[in-house]
Fold this protein.
Amino acid sequence: MNMFSGKGLNMKNEITYDNYEKNIILIFAIFASFMTTFMGSSVNIALPAIAKEFNFNAIILTWVALSFLMTSAVSNLPSGWLSDIYGKKNIILTGLLVYIFALILTMTSKTASVLIISRVIHGIAGPLISASSSALLVHVFPKEQRGRVLGLNSAAVYLGLSTGPFFGGVLAHNFGWRSIFTAVLAACIILFFFFAFKVKKDTPL
């Protein structure tokens, strides 16, 4: 059967959700995009507290930040490709599981090497979630609605980037730097169960 005859990116898959289901998927996809960028920007505010606890010098502290940024930048394009090959739902769930593992590893880390490794894993898993969430919106919504939903998704990305330093600072100041990762961990668990049980499995290309 031709790949455009009703599988993968075909229009038939766009009408498998009713309007209510589409809007719920939109909300959670936006939440996923917000969460990943919030995590990236909020941790920067917590770096002084992390440095104080672990007695890090400036070089190690720089690597804590750069390890995430570099791996995230490198992982963006492959993440979109993987969602097409293996299915958007599968990649989102994989990304969330890996992200949850990295969060737990960060929260329990005692050394610089473990902390940096956990941030590298964050940088790999984050694009799996955000890029595949955007691809899922394209898959779910018809072309006449995609501009609106992708615009909302992009707004969530920049909202996460802009609010992360403020709310990350509030959490770090009042509850310690690990509270940032605890809050994101709770969000990831909610997202995982939603995507696992409410999103229908799409057909890979």
Remarks:
- DSSP finds six helices and no strands in the chain.
